[in-house]
Amino acid sequence: MGKIYKGILGGFSGKVGTVVGFIRNGVAYMRSIAAAVAQPNTLPQLEQRAKFSLAISFLRPLTEFLKIGFRNYTGKMSAVNYAMSQTLKNGIRGTYPDFSIDYANVLVSKGTLAGVLNPIAVSLVAGEVSISWDDNSDEVNAQPTDSTLILAINPTTHEAVFTNGESTRVEGTQTLAVPTSFSGETLECYMAFADADGKVATSKYVGPVVIA
Fold first, then answer.
1. Which helix (H) or strand (E) holds 98?
2. 3-state DSSP call for residue 79?
3. What is the fold of 43-210?
4. What's the pLDDT band for 74 if we cut at 50, 70, 90?
5. What is the reported pTM?
6. Reduced to 3 states, what is the DSSP secondary structure of residue 124?
């Protein structure tokens, strides 16, 4: 039961309904009591927390790339939060507690520019990933000068390497430098294009590549 000071409009101490009052240094304070959760550890809650934690761990090293890849997104969320939403929706597979990233269904960029055609990634030299693609600059909404956006993710070390604008659509090939310490490890690779006006293409999953 609460105790009222200085009449009904004054401060009080103790619990009154869902409010707790207390006096500190002569000043009266009130705060609400958090509503009790009937089942704080239901399976859907545990699933959502696990997915959220996995998505954060996956996206954290990609932040700078995502700001480019989703820069055309015009909704109320930030580019990174939009990427989080897409990953939670489409990029996680499995059942609790064995969730994993579904790399083939992850998007790291999204836009209206013509996408990448038939990308292939190989690693024949330590510290390098060679990526090739078909020139489709004759397609609608494509230009020979569209620049490359290439991303390689190391799931083992939770690191990412990316380039922006080091090659063009018409050139059909690019080499991405990666740490030599990645030798023997598998990288998950993605590619997109960006044009001179800032438009981007929806990313294409290039596939896993074992580094030489």
1. strand 98-101
2. helix
3. Immunoglobulin-like (2.60.40)
4. confident
5. 0.81
6. coil
